[in-house]
Write a structure and sequence with these properties.
The complex is a heterodimer of chains A (76) and B (667). By secondary structure, chain A is of the alpha+beta class. Chain A has a single domain, classed as Roll (SH3 type barrels). Classes of the chains: A alpha+beta (76), B alpha/beta (667). At the A-B interface, helix 1, strand 2 and strand 4 of A face helix 3, helix 11, helix 12, helix 17 and strand 10 of B.
C-alpha cells in the first residue's frame, strides 16, 4: 500500500520510495528511506497535503507524492 | 585571513549564529547569476575571520539553486573551514548534511545549537563520542543566547591550524559505510582520483556523488567512455547486491550511520517540551475548521495595525516631517537665490519623488516587523501547509499566499516578501501576479472617478475592481502555469519547524536589512526616475520650461502613445500622460489629471471609459518603487522587463475587453 492510504493517527514503515529526479532525492534527503517509521499526524484542512512525523521532526508532503511511497502499516 | 563558510539546514538557527558572529558588519548581495542571497561579514573582535552564510540546505544535491550555490562555494572556492551548525533537538536529519560535508576534505567545526533545549528536556549528547566518531571538533552552543560562541571561534582557529600542520588530534572520518556500498565507493574513489583532482574535487566526495548518479559531477569530471562504463558496472553490481537503487542506497547508508551514532551518543527519553507544545499549538493553527479563520484573523489584525489608524498615524507624522523638511529646503533655496527651474527640479522633482516613496517607509517597517515575526516563529510554514492545495490550482504553492495578500496593502513590501519563497519559479510567478492585487495607492484614483461617475455605487465599483484584480491573477496564473512556467516546480516537501520565539535581535536584523534595501532604492533608482518625470512634465523638446502642460514632453509622449489606447476608449494625451506619471506613484495619476484636465475628468471621460481607465490603472505596472523591488528580487533585468511588459499587456487587454463589451451592451 502507499503512504496516502495511511489514515491520520496511524503508523507505517517505509518499504520503497518511488518518483524520479529532484522529488525523489528530496524525499530521500529528508529521511524517507526504506525501513523508516512514520506517523501520519494529520491532513491539511483542504484534504491535502499530509503532515508526517519521522526521525523526530514534522514534515509535510502532498498526496500525489505520498502515493509514490510504498509502506507497510504497523499495527499499534 | 581565514574564510569561514557557515553551512546548515533551514530552521537550525544559522542566521542567528551569523548575526552573533558578525554583529552589524554584514554585506548582503546575491550569488552570481542566481537570486540566492549571499551574506558575508567579519567576525566581531577577529578581523582575520570572515564568514560567508551559505543558503540553508538539507543536502548537497544538484537540484535547487541553493544547493548548487552552496556546493559550488564549498568545492570550488574552498573556504578554509566549514562551521556546520546543527539543531541538536533535530539531530538525525541535521546530521545528514554533515555526513555529506565530511568527504569534502575541508576542516569542519560542528556547532551543536539549541543545547539549552536539550538540557532542559533532560536529554544528553555525548560530545566526546561525536568528536571521535565524526573526527571533527564539536562545540555545544546556544546561538540566540550567545552561549558557546567564544569557544566556537577558538575551535575554528584550532581546526585551521591542525589542518595546516597536519597534526589532527582527532582523525577525520570519511567512511560511513560497509558492505556493497563500501566496496563500490572504494573502487570508484580509486578510479576517479586523477580526474577528480583535476576538476578540483575531493576523490571521496566525487565518488559518492557518482554513485548517487549526480549529473553535474558526471560532466564536470570529463570521464572517458570506458571509465563511465566501469562505474556503471560497479554501481549496477552494488544495486543487485543490495536489492535497491543507487540513490536510495547512499541515502540509506548515511542515515544508517547516523542512527548508529544517535544510539551511541544521544540519550533522549521522550519528545521535547517544545515539540509537544508545537503539536498542541497546531491542534488549533492547522485544525480542519479553525485553521483558515485563525489565519484570516491574524492577517486582518496585521493589516489593521499597518494600514489602519495606528499605521496611518505614524505615516502621517512621517509625511509631515518630510513636508516640513521640503518646505525648509524650499525656503533655503529661495533665499540662496537659485533659479526657479532649479528650485522646481529639486523641490517638485527630487523631494516630491523621494518623499512620496519614503512615505511608504513606516508601513514597510510595521508590516515587515509582523511578517518576520510570523516567519521566524515557524507560522509561515503552517500557512503554506494549510493553503497549498488552493494555490496549487493556479500553479503556485502555499507559501505564495502571504506576499499576494500583502500586495493589497502595498506592492513593494509584497515583492520584497517573495524572498522567503524557496524556488525561483514560484518567486517569479508570485512577483508577476502580486501587482494585480489592488494596492492602497490606487484607492485615491478609484475614489476620484467614483465620486464623479458612480457617487451612489462607490463601494460596489471599488469592490468589483478588487475582484477583477483577483480574477485576472487567477486567469493569468493558469495561463502562465500552462505556458512559461510549465513543469519543473520544486517539490513541496517542507519541514514544519518547532514553534520558537524569535529573539528581538534577529527580528530587528531582518527589519534593518529591509529598510536599508528600501532606502538604497529610494535614493538611487527612484531618485533618477523622479528627475526623469520632472523633466518630462516641465520641459519641452527644446529643453525650455513650459507654462502650459500641453506643450511638455509628457504631453507629446502622451499624444504619441495615445493611439495605442484607441480600442480602450481613452486615447487622449491627457489620459496617457496621467498613466505615464502613474509610474512615479499611483497617486500621481490623480494629480496629473487635475493639471491636464482643468475642467474636471467629466469633461473627457464617460462612465464607460472611466471604468476602462480604472481597470487599466488597477492592472498596469505599479510604481517605480515596485519595479525597483522587482528588479532586486528577480535578480535579472530581462525578467524585470518581461514582468513590466506582461503587466502592461494584461492591463491593456482586459481594459479593451471591458470597453468593447461595454459598448456592445450599449453603455
Amino acid at each position: 500500500m502507499s503512504l496516502d492510504q495511511i489514515r491520520p493517527g496511524e503508523k507505517a514503515v517505509i518499504a520503497a520510495v518511488g518518483g524520479t529526479g529532484s522529488l525523489r532525492r528530496r524525499l530521500l534527503d529528508m529521511g524517507l528511506t526504506p525501513g523508516t517509521q512514520i506517523f501520519v499526524r494529520k491532513v491539511a484542512p483542504f484534504g491535502d497535503p499530509l503532515e508526517l512525523s519521522l526521525r523526530g521532526y514534522e514534515l509535510t508532503l502532498r498526496n500525489e507524492d505520498a502515493k509514490k511511497i510504498k509502506v507497510h502499516r504497523t499495527v499499534s | 585571513m581565514i574564510r569561514i563558510a557557515l553551512a546548515g539546514n533551514q530552521n537550525c538557527g544559522k542566521t542567528t549564529l551569523f548575526n552573533q558572529l558578525t554583529g552589524s558588519n554584514q554585506h548582503v548581495g546575491n550569488f552570481p547569476g542566481v537570486t540566492v542571497e549571499k551574506k558575508t561579514g567579519e567576525v566581531l573582535g577577529h578581523p582575520d575571520l570572515t564568514v560567508i552564510d551559505l543558503p540553508g540546505i538539507y543536502s548537497l544535491s544538484p537540484y535547487t539553486s541553493e544547493e548548487v550555490v552552496a556546493r559550488d562555494h564549498l568545492v570550488h572556492h574552498r573556504p578554509d573551514v566549514i562551521v556546520n551548525i546543527v539543531d541538536a533537538t533535530n539531530f538525525e536529519r541535521n546530521l545528514y548534511l554533515t555526513i555529506q560535508l565530511l568527504p569534502l576534505g575541508l576542516p569542519i567545526v560542528l556547532a551543536l545549537n539549541m543545547m539549552d533545549e536539550v538540557r532542559s528536556n533532560g536529554w544528553t549528547i555525548d560530545i566526546a563520542t561525536l568528536e571521535k566518531e565524526l573526527g571533527v571538533y564539536v562545540v555545544p552552543i546556544v546561538a540566540n543566547k550567545n552561549e558557546g560562541i567564544h569557544e566556537l571561534v577558538e575551535r575554528v582557529y584550532d581546526a585551521v591550524s591542525d589542518s595546516k600542520s597536519g597534526t589532527n588530534p582527532i582523525l577525520r572520518r570519511i567512511d560511513f559505510c560497509d558492505g556493497p556500498v563500501h566496496k563500490a565507493l572504494h573502487a570508484i574513489t580509486h578510479l576517479v582520483e586523477e580526474p577528480a583532482g583535476e576538476a578540483g574535487y575531493e576523490p571521496r566526495f566525487a565518488a559518492t556523488k557518482l554513485i548517487e548518479g549526480d549529473p553535474l559531477l558526471e560532466t564536470d569530471l570529463k570521464l572517458s567512455a570506458a571509465d563511465r562504463d566501469i562505474i556503471k558496472r560497479i554501481v549496477r553490481e552494488m544495486e543487485t547486491d543490495l536489492g535497491t537503487d543507487r540513490e536510495a542506497a547512499i541515502a540509506d547508508m548515511r542515515y544508517a550511520f547516523i542512527e548508529r551514532l544517535v544510539r551511541d551518543a544521544v540519550k533522549k527519553k521522550h519528545e521535547s517540551k517544545e515539540q509537544i507544545r508545537s503539536i498542541r499549538i497546531d491542534t488549533v493553527l492547522t485544525h480542519r475548521l479553525y485553521a483558515l479563520p485563525v489565519f484570516v484573523t491574524i492577517m486582518m489584525v496585521i493589516f489593521w495595525i499597518t494600514f489602519g489608524p495606528a499605521g496611518s498615524w505614524v505615516s502621517g507624522l512621517f509625511e509631515q516631517g518630510i513636508e516640513s523638511l521640503t518646505n525648509l529646503s524650499s525656503r533655503a533655496l529661495m533665499s540662496a537665490g537659485v533659479s526657479p527651474w532649479m528650485h522646481s527640479l529639486i523641490i517638485d522633482g527630487a523631494f516630491a519623488g523621494i518623499g512620496s516613496v519614503l512615505s511608504f517607509l513606516p508601513l514597510i517597517i510595521i508590516l515587515f516587523f509582523f511578517l518576520s515575526l510570523l516567519e521566524d516563529t515557524g507560522y509561515m510554514a503552517r500557512v503554506a501547509f494549510v493553503l497549498d492545495s488552493l494555490l496549487r490550482k493556479i500553479g503556485l504553492s502555499g507559501r505564495s499566499f502571504v506576499p499576494m495578500l500583502v500586495g493589497f496593502g502595498c506592492t513593494v513590501p509584497a515583492i520584497m516578501a517573495t524572498r522567503t519563497l524557496s524556488s525561483d519559479r514560484d518567486r517569479r510567478m508570485t512577483i508577476l501576479l502580486t501587482p494585480f492585487m489592488s494596492c492602497s495607492a490606487k484607492v485615491p484614483v478609484y475614489l476620484v472617478f467614483c465620486s464623479v461617475f458612480f457617487p451612489k455605487n462607490t463601494a460596489l465599483v471599488i469592490g468589483l475592481l478588487y475582484g477583477t484584480g483577483v480574477v485576472v491573477a487567477i486567469v493569468t496564473g493558469l495561463l502562465l502555469k500552462s505556458t512559461v512556467f510549465r513543469g519543473n516546480s520544486v517539490p513541496f516537501v517542507l519541514e514544519l519547524p518547532v514553534y520558537r520565539f524569535p529573539s528581538l535581535k534577529t527580528v530587528l536584523y531582518h527589519l534593518g536589512g529591509k529598510v536599508k534595501d528600501f532606502l538604497t532604492k529610494a535614493f538611487t533608482i527612484i531618485f533618477l526616475g523622479s528627475l526623469v518625470i520632472w523633466f518630462l512634465t516641465n520641459l519641452n523638446w527644446a529643453f525650455h520650461m513650459v507654462e502650459d502642460g500641453a506643450e511638455s514632453m509628457l504631453a507629446s509622449l502622451g499624444s504619441a502613445i495615445a493611439p495605442v489606447f484607441s480600442l480602450n476608449g481613452f486615447d487622449s494625451w491627457q489620459a496617457v500622460a496621467a498613466l505615464l506619471s502613474g509610474f512615479a506613484a499611483k497617486e500621481a495619476v490623480v494629480s496629473t489629471l487635475s493639471v491636464v484636465l482643468p475642467a474636471g475628468i467629466a469633461s473627457y471621460f464617460t462612465p464607460l471609459t472611466a471604468v476602462a481607465f480604472l481597470v487599466f490603472t488597477l492592472l498596469y505596472t505599479p510604481c517605480m518603487a515596485a519595479i525597483a523591488a522587482t528588479r532586486r528580487e528577480m535578480g535579472s533585468l530581462r525578467w524585470t522587463i518581461a514582468a513590466v511588459l506582461f503587466q502592461l499587456v494584461t492591463a491593456w487587454a482586459v481594459s479593451v475587453l471591458v470597453f468593447q463589451v461595454g459598448q456592445l451592451l450599449g453603455f
